[in-house]
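Q: How do we represent a protein-ligand complex in a form that can be generated token by token?
A: Start from the inputs.
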Amino acid sequence: MDEIKPKVIIIDDEKGLRIGTQRLLQSENFDVDTAENGLTGIKMATDFEYDLAIIDLKMPDVDGITVLKAIKKAHPNTVCFIATAYASYDTAIEATKLGAFTYIPKPFTPEELLRNLNAGYERRLITLETERLKKEREERLLELAFEKSRLNTIVNSLADGVFVVNKNGELVLFNPSAIKYIELNEVILGEKILGILPPIISEQIKKILDNTTFENKTYTAEVELKPERELVVEIKCSPVPHPDGSLAGVVAVIRNITEMKKVEYVKSQFVSMVAHELKTPMAAVLGFLNIILNPEMKVTPEQEHDYMNRSRNRLNGLVEMVNDLLDISRMEMKTKQRELKELNIGEIVKGTVDFLELELKKKGVTVTSKYQDNLPVFKADNNEITRLFTNIIGNSIKYNKDNGTIDVNVFTQGNYIVTKIADTGIGMKPEDKVRLFSEFFRVKNEYTRSISGTGLGLSIVKRIVESYSGKIEVDSEYTKGSTFTIYLPFTK
Ligand code: ADP
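Then emit the structure tokens for the protein with adenosine-5'-diphosphate bound:
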């Protein structure tokens, strides 16, 4: 490897001294340039950074002090020597003030010169190393500061609330989401907050803080922050360790679980509704059987036949309900395999009307229908679409008046295939319309009393329509009739 040679410039108008010094230094392993006057010296030593500069004080063009100033300005770390035969104490002081390392009185011996230059070079190496370390430290600090601000930004953007308390229960860090959830109006870092927090949250934190040793265990609790399931959060508190393994504090993460809780609630409500709906017909059948089997009741054969018949009707209703429930559950769990085919909605509606001919005849209901020519095809599962129209048209017969009418119209409107089914039936009151598509909802009035059903048909209809990104609307007038309009979007 090449040895690094100190780079020196000799700026002196005295040729003999210049050349002599250059030779001496070259033989001592310095890399030496020379300048024969002050201006050339300035040009060379400012264009390039020399390790060392030997500057003659008195030169005909510019004096050594001007050269020194120029070099120091361009390269503060170049170590400069003022060489002069006429050195006064004052010029020496001035030169050192302006940044010269020292001055060397002329004439100098080789030893004197080398001793000075070596000391100067050593100084330069130390200065450069110190500067390098300083720069490195500054860069590292900058990186750390950047890292810290990036972490802060991340913590502040979390949707989950995060806050940290130290061993004394004082708040040491929090993000905006935490404030949103626990509504601490004026939170101050360093403040004791266990008394301000909702008690159930403080309890979890205390469980950790009461342990003097660090135990890697997370405590979780659900908190209803606003009643009626309006805001429910899950809070997870975990211990924060010191590098030495002792307990430093607690980090708490707050997650909004309101939606999940709402779904859970609806599900449990649904289960209790199903149980209730199943219980009524089963209790009725059990009642009939108890009467028949009780000798004391002395049931006549005609009565027994009547009870059996009623039990069968109730059980039929139950089977129908269970089938509907299974359909709903298959739709919800998406386990039902769909066979998508290009369907003609007009033909399906027409087929459904034909299929229900017997029911129509029983009630003397007549159907008028209009199907737009060249209806676009609709890609869907035939069974589902047939089920949809069977439920709607079935209802328009079931809830119609004797000898009433049904008007069917299938046409396109914008991107939708629209099917309007208008009946002249019993209609419904505005307050009944609101709950029409909920599970088990059945209108209770003098007209519906004798009509059986599960209350699940329209909720199935709604699920099917929505699964095809469609919509359903109802228009109804009590005692006059109802119109159901189904919009199914087709791709052009
Ligand atoms: P179900 O017919 O088995 O009771 P549905 O979910 O199909 O269940 O209908 C829910 C309720 O909506 C019915 O009980 C009835 O009160 C009302 N309803 C549905 N269709 C009509 C209609 N065309 N005319 C009047 N009322 C209707």
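The pocket of adenosine-5'-diphosphate is lined by residues 391, 395-396, 399, 423, 425-428, 436, 441-443, 448, 453-459, 482 (CB under 6 Å). Residues 261-333 form a domain with the Helix Hairpins fold (CATH 1.10.287.130).
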